Amino acid sequence: GAGVSQSPSNKVTEKGKDVELRCDPISGHTALYWYRQSLGQGLEFLIYFQGNSAPDKSGLPSDRFSAERTGGSVSTLTIQRTQQEDSAVYLCASSFRQGARTEAFFGQGTRLTVV
Amino acid sequence: DAKTTQPNSMESNEEEPVHLPCNHSTISGTDYIHWYRQLPSQGPEYVIHGLTSNVNNRMASLAIAEDRKSSTLILHRATLRDAAVYYCILDRPGTYKYIFGTGTRLKVLA
Questions:
Q1: Residue B94, Cβ neighbours under 10 Å: how many?
Q2: C-alpha closest to that of A42 among B105, B91, B71
Q3: Contact at 8 Å (CB) between B75 and B82?
Q4: Are strands A65-69 and B9-13 parallel, antiparallel or unpaired?
Q5: Which residues of A touch B101 (CB under 8 A)?
Q6: Inter-chain contact A108–B42, Cβ cutoff 8 Å?
Q7: Nearest 5°: CA angle at A74, between A68 and A80?
Q8: Are the Cβ atoms of A33 and B97 closer than 8 angstroms?
Q9: Sign of the CA dihedral running A92, B41, B17, B6
């Protein structure tokens, strides 16, 4: 499809396990964002990638969280030693960054449940 | 980070206009005002954005106050499908990260 694709759509994991969440952005988009949305809350910024620049990791809540973007395309968000408070919907977005016109396209999200 | 303030919730009757307010008193001269909405169980989707002048597109209109410290998203005829959480966000060139608040949950009554 032409939109942002995230996988898996749902993930249930045991506390203490590591998880990987994948994001396939829209082809040609230079910018990629990860957000987290806890139940009934707004979106919390996690990390931003733009081209070959160093990512803005200022929103990552702890060193258990990391993300990479390979070849300027697909991104993986990794959560190590998951905790129950990590349960949330993880949303990925991409945009073609051109000045300040940054219409972002979001995926459907990955719902992570840590039991 | 520039912040926005929105009412937690609003209600509208179907086929009536809806005016969703947003305050952004700390806006700077180069910040763009963006609106997104999030339908139930979906990721946010872009609605509209502007800088100084009012903007119209097929989804909505954006009215920006002369001092730019507030703006209003206008849905001209609300439908049941417009029930969503609406987020007003400031896009500051050079910072790249959208800061989402809690938004306004719009309920549309049939």
A1: 6
A2: B105
A3: yes
A4: unpaired
A5: 42
A6: yes
A7: 40
A8: yes
A9: negative
Could you give the CA distance from residue A8 to residue A52 in angstroms, rounded to a whole number?
A: 26
Please state, in angstroms and rounded to a whole number, the distance separating the CA atoms of residues A115 and A31.
33
Of A51-55, A94-98, B33-37, B89-93, which gets the smallest average pLDDT?
A: A94-98
CB-based contact, B87 to chain A, within 8 Å? yes
Query: Backbone phi, then psi, for B77, in 5-degree steps?
Result: -145, 100
Share of chain A above pLDDT 70, in %: 94
Burial of B110 (0-12, 13-18, 19+ CB in 10 A): exposed
In angstroms, the Cα distances linking A10 to A89, A113, B102 are 9, 8, 23
Give CA–CA dist A71/A55, Å, rounded: 14
Q: What are the two backbone dihedrals, phi and then psi, of residue B25, each rounded to the nearest 5 degrees?
A: -70, -20
Q: Is B81 helix (H, G, I), strand (E, B) or coil?
A: helix
| Residue length of chain B | 110
Identify the closest residue of chain A to B32 by CA–CA distance: A100
Least confident of A23-27, A101-105, B62-66: A101-105
Q: Which of A20, A41, A21, A49 is nearest to A107 (CA)?
A: A21
SS (H, E, C) A57-99: CCCCCCCCEEEEEHHHCCEEEEECCCCHHHCEEEEEEEECCEC
Tokens linked to B16: 């009536």
